Amino acid sequence: MVEVRLWGSLxxxxxxxxxxxxxxxxxxxxxxxxxxxxxxxxxxxxAGIAVSIDGVIYRDTWSKELxxxxxxxxxPRIAGG
Amino acid sequence: MSGIAVSTTxxxxxxxxxxxxxxxxxxxxxxxxxxxGAKEGCGTGDCGACSVLxxxxxxxxxxxxxxxxxxxxxxxxxxMADGDKLHPLQRKFIEHAALQCGICTxxxxxxxxxxxxxxxxxxxxxxxFGLAGNLCRCTGYDKIVRAVLDAAxxxxxx
Amino acid sequence: xxxxxxASLNDAIGLLAGAKGNAFVLAGGSDLLVRMKGDFIEPxxxxxxxxxxxxxxxxxxxxxxxxxxxxxxxxxxxxxxxxKAWPGVVEAANLIGSKQVQGRCTIxxxxxxASPAADSVPALVAAGARAVIAGPSGKRTIAVEDVPTGPGxxxxxxxxxxxxxxxxxxxxxxxxxxxxxxxxxxxxxxxxSAGVNLTLGADGAVASARVALGAVAATVLLVSEAADAIVxxxxxxxxxxxxxxxxxxxxxxxxxxxxxxxxxxxVAGVLATRAARIAYERAGGK
Amino acid sequence: xxxxxxxxxxxxxxxxxxPLRPDGVDKVTxxxxxxxxxxxxxxxxxxxxxxxHAHAIIRKIDTSKAEALKGVKAVVTAADLPDLTDGxxxxxxxxxxxxxxxxxxxxxxxxAAVAAxxxxxxxxxxxxxxxxxxxxxxxxxxxxxxxxxxxxxxxxVFTDGVDPAPAKPSxxxxxxxxxxxxxxxxxxxxxxVVERTYRTEQTHQGYIEPHACVASVNxxxxxxxxVCTQGHFVYRQWCADLLGMDxxxxxxxxxxxxxxxxxxxxxxxxxxxLALSRKAGRPVKLVMSRDEVFRASGxxxxxxxDVKIGAKKDGTITAASATLRxxxxxxxxxxxxxxxxxxxxxxxxxxxxxxxYEVLVNRPKVSAYRAxxxxxxxxxxxxxxxxxxxxxxxxxxxxxxxxVAKEGTRASYGPxxxxxxxxxxxxxxxxxxxxxxPLGKNQGRGMACGFWFNFGGQTCTDLNIGADGTxxxxxxxxxxxxxxxxxSMVAAEELGIPYEQVKAIxxxxxxxxxxxxxxxxxxxxxxxxxxxxxxxxxxxxxxxxAAQMWGIPVExxxxxxxxxxxxGAKHGNLPPLSVREIAAAAGNTGxxxxxxxxxxxxxxxxxxxxxICDIEVDPETGQTRVLRYTVVQDAGKAxxxxxxxxxxxxxxAQGIGWALNEEYIYGKDGRLQxxxxxxxxxxxxxxLPMIDTQxxxxxxxxxxxxxxxxxxxxxxxxxxxxxxxxxxxxxxxxTHIPMSPPRILAALEAx
Lengths: 81, 158, 286, 751
Known about the structure:
The structure holds 4 protein chains of 4 kinds. By secondary structure, chain B is an alpha+beta fold. In chain B, about 30% of the residues lie in helices and about 15% in strands.
């Protein structure tokens, strides 16, 4: 079980929940559980979600493990110059 | 339509080419003569990337017609080094990292050479105003100005 | 399109007079080639006047200077006598474009391009310069301010060429100056500009003056009220205020991408006073 | 793939030195080949016809006269780029931007293109294309576009992210929100509040090299594209998708790139050039003019931003909020959202909320520009922070230090920070001699902070050991600022050999695995990680080869100082083997030696900067002059300090241009008034002073050398630093960027 915080727009799509408890070991599992629970999130997941684990942003790595007591925050994938 | 036959001197070599009346010297250099060191950044004389010397006069080659090259002596970036020996300005540009992307570099080098030919010991302000016709978007000009001042110093034997 | 490099002025006039379609004079080309590149014009004939020997010279005579219409502005800047006699005119000519453009552009071209923002024109107007115009029916000499008639328009008839710009010999204790406002330090077109030319009397006060403004109307303005404001004065604060007011009042600019009406009117006055001070100092005023 | 990216403090030999760049000689002799410097046999000249209207329905395009012109080999319109996007809205926006479909959405929008035997014929052909437009009302202003009465760009756009979903279509494409805490309660706690609305105008990246490409498509479905780009692998993907080609059959080679700054992360002309080539059956060279670059490529958003910040008398910020409205051009982006994320990043805030609105207007499609969207948000926030400090009576640096974010702070955009550099940059600024230098009349000093995320992403690098022991590294991130030098240094460091023995090249898309773009300041960060990984893989192989050469177990071979060494007393007499010696024997020990690396570089490590600026204002004309400028920024670890300085200086110069004079000016007709370097005024050499830099090195824990991206952050603080300096010089608070002389003069007169 990990605690996951959502950015504003994602929280709105998750019925206003800013923090969720999810049973997930990896980023891939996290996305799967989120989509099951809140189908409205699929669109965001397809568009790309970055996962911040203790302040380090992971953009692409599904297999990344989610430590139990880590600070996990979901962000949109972003573009740079 | 028949072209205009032009005989000219480029980097010390006799060169002949045919061009259309409306073709610019820049187009002739790049597209007919394969001298792509001069760049087209704007085509309107506002960026200096196409700078060349015509009879020792600094110009934007985008604002000169190819036909006007007849009988002239043209110097481009390709003629700046002496064989494999770089001109001091070229060396200093590399040493000072006075270039990043490098697209403006040929124009800057030609303009800087002209500047130092007229003023061997310029102040920073003279360098800045002397090179104001050459745009650079990468460097903020800091390292370019330093490179030119350092090259001037070396060329004076100081 | 045809490109011709005539060897004589008469040949050039003949080519232009006889041209079918759009014919243009090529001196420095720094406006002409930009307009071609932008597809604003499609010339059928270009007459390059740089092959005409007499147009490529600056001649100093007993009466002053004759600047040939094919003389690049950079060459004007290299002429010590001209620079000494007409520092404001030469400064103005040397503000057009970059060093690269300086090597090509000419004051005659700047005049005939007929932009209200042309840098050299206010200085030439203030200087009382004249244009020698050669055409199929002979030569005529007119005040430079009578050449442009509106943005992009001149009083030149078909086949006519500006042969030279004539600047008079300076009376002693005279000075001129030109200032323009640009947002950057180089490479811009004047948002507003001012040329001032004055001569001091034996008493050290301004005996005569001409004040011209650029980029504040369809053509460069010669503002007699502005000159009146400083004649008879030593540029005291009241005179300068009057000069500024006269310039601001005379200006009838437009709002455009380079500046606003309000800005141009205000800064016209500011620049005129600053230019007047420089001219005054150059004339030996204290 | 057991690569561990964790930072380990180590002594560097190569990293941190300042060797000469490998592309230097080519670039100073005119030999370097950029987008427009390349030709293919039989190539045609491509030209694009663009809409003169800001908003118009395209009723009919008649290309028959153009096609009939002698020398014209192909004419293409949207019909030649059929919609293969399969519901992918982002890709459809790219397609529609490359070539207008039913509507032209901005002045400069491509509507048709020709390929002809020469430029003159192509130009004539464009004039023969007849288009029947139905001109529609347009809107270019961000606030105007949000009104109910505004002309609508798309009937199908309903504001996303609002509850309940709106019933009426709108130009407001999306709303986003960030923050935490209770801002209302926070403002109630405040002793002082500053609340203002700010505006910034649209700017362009202003790279000196216009977009250029040479495209060749064969009738067997293969193709080649030579192009100036920040990401040839991504260009390949988009072009293949849009043209219905197999990705692996399109080989894209990146030329030297004449500046990008984010502007060369998007395709415009490339799919069109490929379509022309496919139709003509010959290669096509397509080079944009400067006018086209301004009218049709890459601008930033124009913005309108409300900021409210409240603080206690003791200097503690109690709440902060911002509403950010950003133009996107005709299609939605996440530009306001990036502004909403970055706006308050430097601060430790209990109560913060930001809301972003993505607004569609009849302007070119916005593309990334160096720390995209952050400079505008920072302008608004850092101006308000300065004003609030003044109101409270605190020094602006001390006020920022009192509220600064640090390790463990919850960022305003959500996560909790690891080790970050904003505090140290502020402390460095506080102690900097620049802050103590005297000022004259009409002169003022300003400072401001800036933030950018930095990216990592997909990266692939090959490292090949030559028969003589020299090393080639093939990377897939385009070199925009000297990364071939810095990556060579990293390879040299890892292998323990001199920098001069390493040569880095940017490989084409058929020679290397996929790489993300050089964007988000990721080039050196990610490719250095991949290079380290590749080098370690090569070392593993070289150890094995040395073991073979010696006939000892590989476990007994260590790698030290560029040599394989036999460890342990029993092999004590074996002299170390150099890379050269191992390479020379490679033919007998198992063949060529190479190290590969494919990885996703994560943990890029956020970046902060603080800038100081001195300005002089002419109170009679509003003219400004930058007298002195200092950049203090955290680099994590500066691989090549000179190039890091170059990034700092270049970003600052771009920010200065944005702050003072750069802007898109649209006429009432919706047409761009200043599509050239004459009236789009980027700083010239005489506009700027030397730009001083101070590099701080707060190691990124997620990179073996501690490297962070450095390319973007330096464009973020200048807008506010200059606005604050102007305020301190002449007492007027400028809320509209650029602070052009007419705006400053008007503000002075209004005082």
